[in-house]
Fold this protein.
Amino acid sequence: MKHHATDAHTLVAAYALGALDEDERKDFDAHLRTCEACRQEAAEFEATTARLAAAVSQTPPAAAKAQVMAAIDGVRQLPPRIPAPRVAPALGGFLRRRAVPWALAASVAAAALGGVAVWQTQSAQEGEQQARQAQQQLDAVSSVLAAPDARTVHGRTANGALTTVVASDQQDKAVFTAANLPAPGAGKTYQLWLDHDGTMRPAGLIDHDGTVILAGNPADAGAVGLTLEPAGGSPQPTTEPLLLLALPS
């Protein structure tokens, strides 16, 4: 790994996402044994990637397996795999610098577009509509994750859910992800808020684990809030916040 010691910390996300080559990974393994901060950050990146991928995944329909198995005999075999040419060293450095946002976006793409293959077993109209919705969500989330100024912060709600916010001033958007969020209960939903100098403004709804683009411009907001509200949401919070997470600066 041809980097100065002070540069090792910048490779933690690439390490967590498998973007380092074999020699670099071995050197970074040695670095992790002496760096508690990098061990914790690597674990957070791995958890965030898993949550973002799971957030846009779709449960296949019950009949999907039978339909796929029935169609196997009519599917052509793939051609032999041809090894891809090695990337020039100069380009490799650039790719590692971009590994964090693009690898996170790729994890969302893999989950969202993987579901599209299953949708194709359904009616063409339903498949096209769901594919468009998945692509729109993927594009919106990816634009934030891939922004050069994307910043990430993690938190935990009062009811135990793990949350992540990725914000970009250039995109004027923020992405909110929740994992292990308990069911809100009948007639209830979770509502997101942007805290503008003490004024809580509605920023969207989320009723289960997932990823959403926050409504409104987060540029002037200091924090993201989460409350439990009546179904459909409220113009102002009606319960104590389950989360008030300072936006990354």
Notes: The chain has two domains: 5-145, 151-246. The chain has a mean pLDDT of 75. Residues 5-145 form one domain. DSSP finds seven helices and eight strands in the chain.
